[in-house]
Amino acid sequence: MSLALWLYSALTWAAQPLLRRKLRRRAVAEPGYGHAVGERFGRYARPIDSLIPQSSTDPLGRFVWIHAVSLGETRAAAILLAELRRQLPGMRLLLTHGTATGRAEGEKLLLPGDVQVWQPWDTPGAVRRFLRQFRPAIGILMETEVWPNLVAGCRQRGIPLVLANARFNEKSLRKSLRLAALARPAYGGLAAVWAQTDADAERLQSIGAPVQGVFGNLKFDVVPDAGQRARGRAWRAGSARPVVMLASSRDGEESMWLAALKQKSTPAVEKKAQAAINSEANSTDKTVQWLVVPRHPQRFAEVRQLLCSAGLTVSSRRQWADGPEPADVWLGDSLGEMVLYYSLADVALLGGSFAPLGGQNLIEAIACGCPVVVGPHTFNFAEAATLACEQGVAHRVEDIGQGVALACDLATDAPRLAVARDLAQEFMQQHRGAARLTAAAIAALLGLAAAP
After folding, report:
1. Boundaries of CATH 3.40.50.11720 in the chain?
2. Which residue numbers delimit the 3-deoxy-D-manno-octulosonic-acid transferase N-terminal domain (predicted)?
3. Considering the entire predicted model, what is its pTM?
4. Percent of the chain with pLDDT over 70
5. Per the residue annotation, which of 39, 73, 143, 253 is the catalytic one?
6. Residue 145 is among the residues annotated as catalytic for this protein
């Protein structure tokens, strides 16, 4: 063990009480964080014999392990998993997460014989117990999750560990270079890396990662849930006004949006905003209906209070039976229904892109035929955002005030909106294929012939 890894291991070991305290605090708002806490430290209720035969040498008699830390990674993992199950019939899944939202979403992906646990905290002991418990045939880390002790533990046991759908922005590269003594062995210890873009590949190679292909973004292979799409479209048909969505908004962005609605120094925005929040609007009103969907469930109540404090009436998704109820603002306070919300909306303002947070996944919106307006901060999805803007399915603005004005203009311009929806279909079709390529590469690493 190198000095850098030894020091890192000592710090992660010493931080365990702090992690337990953090989990207890988060469990107050999100009970999922209080579930099976021992798993995070490599402590499991079921013995290995009840999970998998110890003598198994068949790769598909052992687990194919996918680690998807949070909600976005889990949704990408779902796309890859569907293709893996097609190419490797009979595979058994071991699915790990770091967040409660990721674990809740991942539970939907499990079949009989699959197992879901928390990601082990990155100490040598927890990693050792995790690998001894499950003995995966291969480990697949989604997008960004590279942990030094996890990589070292897999190398010691001859378990190929890969990074799929890999993205690596300039900020991540700078941070890794500052910690090069730790980062270079971690990235260099991976068995393979498949990047989303050429730029991601170059940055990953500069830190020593074994990039073996640029396959594109798995999220382009998404197939939106048909039931949610149908319900969203039906509800949209029942709205007298075009629907504009503030999608996956992050802390502070709702306040920025409210300020934009009230900003008297911007006449175009003010006129649309005042009409948009006018609950007296009649059925012939051509202004918009606002839909706000916060990114994190622990903020649902907070955002509702913010909207009410601003003098707006609010109708929450949890109250809807046969569709949205009349209100100044509809609040999307449910999990796992982004397809429904994007299908209900005519245009979406992308959360995380107006505050310097890197943006959220705009591909899901485009897959539902919903044009997107993005702010200046999209470094988490830089390539996808740039491509979408170049091809007319997304539009970049400098601030949320411009975003509100543009979204309202687009939502009320039916011919322009129809063109944008057609472009969205073409855009998705052009960029599909990453799931098939990634699954085939995984099968090759396992020495298996993938199904055609």
Report:
1. 24-216+433-445
2. 37-222
3. 0.80
4. 91
5. 73
6. no
